[in-house]
Structure formats: structure tokens, C-alpha cells
Design goal:
With 124 residues, the chain is an alpha/beta fold. The protein has a single domain, classed as Rossmann fold (3-Layer(aba) Sandwich), CATH 3.40.50.2300. It is 43% helix and 20% strand. It contains 5 helices and 5 strands. Strand 4, helix 4 and strand 5 form a beta-alpha-beta unit.
């Protein structure tokens, strides 16, 4: 049996979780879901995650706090794509400065573009 590439989706919006999870699974990925930054941080530190798709605005711990903790405190190097509705240049610069590998605004990208971006990180 082939080992699937595992993506950690850290997102609190149930409808978006279902759509993204379905799209990623159809693209051949295994998907693990975390509904807040605390749960996301815990799951991101476990072995086997190839990429993290991270929202910023979430309960318990926001995505930026999770990202900083992941990079600075935990030393996790797993690629992170921030996928958010926050769209200012400052948000993008801040996310990239804190260790995100890429930054995508949900409203500006189709699901296929998200899959293409994931593939660039996990298959190259």
C-alpha cells in the first residue's frame, strides 16, 4: 500500500474544512484536521505531517501564534501555507516573517490553486 502524503488542515470553519478535505483527499492526500491553534500545534508536532495549511483567525489560539510557537519554540520545519481571509500586505509580511512558506487569501484562490500550491511543496 502506498503511503499518502499527510496534510494538516488547521481551520475552524466546518463548511470549508469539508470542502478542502474532500478536494485534498480526491487529489490523493491524507488529511488530518485541527479546529483551533492549540489542537493544530499539538498535531503539527507529531511525525508524518508533510505540510500544514493554516488559517489565522481561530478560537483558543490564532494561526500566527501557532506559527510562531511551531517555528521558534518547537523548531518544527514542516512547510506552512497560510490560507486566510486576512488580505493586507502586513498580514502576509508578518506571516512570512514568522516562518510561513507561503500566504494565500481564500477569496482570491480557487481550490485547484490551493492543491497546485500544496503539490509544489510536497512533490518537488
Amino acid at each position: 500500500m502506498e503511503n499518502k502524503i499527510k496534510i494538516l488542515l488547521v481551520e475552524d470553519e466546518t463548511a470549508l474544512i469539508e470542502v478542502l478535505k474532500d478536494k485534498m483527499e480526491n487529489a490523493g492526500f491524507e488529511v488530518e484536521v485541527a479546529k483551533n491553534g492549540v489542537e493544530g500545534l499539538e498535531k503539527a508536532c507529531k511525525p508524518g505531517i508533510s505540510l500544514i495549511l493554516l488559517d489565522i483567525v481561530m478560537p483558543k489560539m490564532d494561526g500566527m501564534t501557532m506559527l510562531r510557537s511551531l517555528r521558534k519554540e518547537k523548531g518544527v520545519k514542516t512547510p506552512v501555507i497560510v490560507l486566510t481571509n486576512l488580505g493586507s500586505d502586513d498580514d502576509a509580511k508578518s506571516a512570512l516573517a514568522d516562518g510561513a512558506d507561503d500566504f494565500m487569501i481564500k477569496a482570491e484562490h480557487k481550490l485547484d490553486e490551493v492543491i497546485e500550491k500544496i503539490n509544489k511543496f510536497v512533490k518537488d
